[in-house]
């Protein structure tokens, strides 16, 4: 019902709904800068639209699965803040692609990160997040320290997951 010509600068979606495209796409097409998505039950994210957004500067994902349908190219040229909480990636390559697609990333928070298929370890050359000012990592050694060079404030909490 809102005027389609007005921008949406900040959009926060907390949902159990599986058909998120109808909610997320209008925010993306209106130049959203701050996007927070909490899917409550680790539903799949329509990542093809979210991970190729030129205007996005803050992206916070919570309780989300990034699996089939992950875009071939991640292009987030304005993204400065990325928070991943309780996020599951199908392949480690998806995480590599996400981080590589954020060239000016300054703040990274990761907690409860899971990867279903740990292939391509160690990470391919070229994954380095060189503009980071602040990083908070709480994971099971999925994030390589070599990715975080030049970070000014680094907090790492190693979490051991028993299977």
TrEMBL record:
It comes from the Eukaryota. InterPro entries: FBL13/AtMIF1-like (IPR050232), LRR_dom_sf (IPR032675), LRR_PRU1-like (IPR013101). PANTHER family: EMB|CAB62440.1-RELATED (PTHR31900:SF34), F-BOX/RNI SUPERFAMILY PROTEIN-RELATED (PTHR31900). This is F-box/LRR-repeat protein. It comes from Trifolium medium.
